[in-house]
Amino acid sequence: MLTQERILEILKEAGVLLEGHFLLTSGKHSNKYLQCAKIFRHTKYSEELCGALAEQFKDDNIDVVIGPAMGAVQMAYEVSRHLNVENYFAEREDGKMVLRRGFVVTPGMRCLLVEDVVTTGGSVREVMDIVREAGGIVAGVGSIVDRTGGEIDFGVPYKSVISMKVEAWEPDNCPLCKEGKIELVKPGSRKLKVK
User: Fold this and answer.
1) Model pLDDT for residues 11-68, shown as the tens digit of each residue
2) What are 75-124's pLDDT values in tens digits?
3) CA 97, CA 121: separation in Å to the nearest integer?
């Protein structure tokens, strides 16, 4: 089992934690951003973190690990490798999360859904709907980072490698926007101007 100290060391070494003024996928703003994609540049980090997550689900009879694209594609692979099961990813088609590429959930299939970072859980909930509509069972949800500090509830077992409370605000209530000193940035894209 990884210690909290080692987890924080990995996040620091990999350059995961960024500080500034960020537009999150959820639409909220935050002064911190966790760029977990950087973990997957180094197999030594992804193996340790995904292995620690898989260990928490090893007795849950998982049939398949599913992650929403793009952030959890590599993660689903690495967690499934540790559990010795298949892995799928869901992707957006016309704005809706779907399974494509021959990925099929069958009735009774026990699915572990994974996400690199959970803030609001929106993408995970979309994949949960896909699994349930196909008659599959959402056996659990796992993430590397839980940004809610343990406050989120998916209605199924949820486990993370590390849980931390990271502030996030609706755009109208963002203190950084009100200060107007730090430009809003959407990670992975060019800078955005706040109106």
Assistant:
1) 989 988 888 999 987 788 999 888 888 999 989 999 999 999 999 999 999 999 999 9
2) 999 999 999 999 999 999 998 999 999 999 999 999 999 999 898 889 99
3) 13
Contact 26, 122 (CB under 8 A): yes
Hey, which bits of 2-118 come out as E strands?
17-23, 29-34, 64-68, 86-93, 96-99, 110-118
CA separation for the pair 66, 76 (Å, rounded): 6
* Tokens found for residue 121: 């859980």
DSSP 37: G
Looking at the whole model, is its pTM more than 0.85?
no
Segment 98-107 long-range contacts (CB within 8 Å, at least 24 positions apart): 98/130, 99/66, 99/130, 103/66, 104/134, 105/64, 105/66, 105/130, 105/131, 105/134, 105/135, 105/136, 106/134, 106/135, 106/136, 107/134, 107/135, 107/136
